[in-house]
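Re-run with default settings, no changes from the original entry. Doing this only to confirm the output is reproducible before filing.
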Amino acid sequence: MSTVSLAVVPEPISLRILDMFRIGPGPSSSHTVGPMRAAGRFRHHCLDRGIVPHRLQVELRGSLSATGHGHGTDRAVLAGLCGWEPETVDPDAFLAIADRLRAEPEIDWGGRRVRLHPDDVAFDRSRRTDPEWLPHPNTQVCRAFAGDGSLILEESWLSVGGGFVQRTGDEGGKRRPPSPPIAPFHDGRTLLEQARTFGSFGTVVLANERVWEEEPGLLETGLDRIWDAFRACIRRGLGRQGSLPGDLGVVRRAATLATQVDSGRVEESYRNIARAQAYAYAVNEENAAGGIVVTAPTNGAAGIFPAVVVEAAERLGLERVAIHRALATGAAIAMVIKTHASLSGAEVGCQGEVGSATAMAAAALCEILGGDVDQVERAAEIGLEHNLGLTCDPIKGLVQAPCIERNAMGVAKAWSAAQLALNTGGRGIVSLDKVIRVMKRTGDDMRREYKETSEGGLAVNLPEC
């Protein structure tokens, strides 16, 4: 019998919880938050070197070019070059930035004025895929020019999913901890071993984080901020109606579903799931409208994890400690998936986004409901396994259809995965590590058209659907 093994990781996973959950504007972590952060880092590198360019240019390649208009990538790049940060950006100013720069194409650059026009963000349409040109499906090239047209500085940046970015040739998206983890893990198996010692998946991650935090209490404050952002996004989404931006005419449905639940019109056995699905609709409708959401682990899949955990916390009256542990458990699953596969729809399809989010939510819910560490690992595996092969095919490049409804379905899958893990007894024959590896291989085998290019699937067959 053949086995599937993960590649050897030379050092323990040292991703941070607050890097897995990033607050920022929609509609995409890899196509909006990531490019914004990359452009901002390019700006900082210029300022650190005393470079005051005559003009700037950013070239978007691969998936960033194919779906960049629908994802607001050009708007995100402009915001990053202005020095705006995803977590603190004013959503209204963010949405209006292109119009403002068309009218007045200049930005502040460390006390000087530098030209920046929306046309300075270029979409490469060549479809080139050679590694020299496209080292990652989400590649952007940032350039600063002198007054005579000569190139002063050029940097290539990769948006690798979940808002993580790195410059070609380094690990720019990874914060290295100040010391080795006290509960080291390399993959799902070693995470499970540590969880048996520490009591839960979340406790393992929290133990490492408490050693790494710069000041006592910063970790809890950060987790509170993420939790507040989850709930605020759900409230905003439930309070809004009408159609989403773009020409698809997608109608907001969160408030309608929530009203059906509150009025007792939803069948009783389905109500808890339906309420969580209303929360998922709320988050993803806010995301599609360019509102502030939290990557969990991406913007495109931002609704599943908060919907499941917030609904359970409200219904069961979870206290702060249990909520923080649930956040950490979800983050632990995402850390392993990111390390051994990908969270990027442009790299492995939507199995890396909705599949990962479903696994995170299933693990957290299983733990909340009293599951032991083996059941939690199995819940995550089931959640990911039954999203294998899921394509990323946003219609017209908008993170609306099928994305919003797909998040609501992810909620139901997470619930099912948790319940199956809790109630079917024994260990499964497929481990979390095995299914992660298969997800990576499936993504590698998946045709480019089905990986966030809007060139396949529903994105090109809407009239037939």
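The beta strands are 23-25, 55-62, 106-109, 112-115, 121-123, 138-145, 151-161, 164-167, 292-294. DSSP finds 19 helices and nine strands in the chain.
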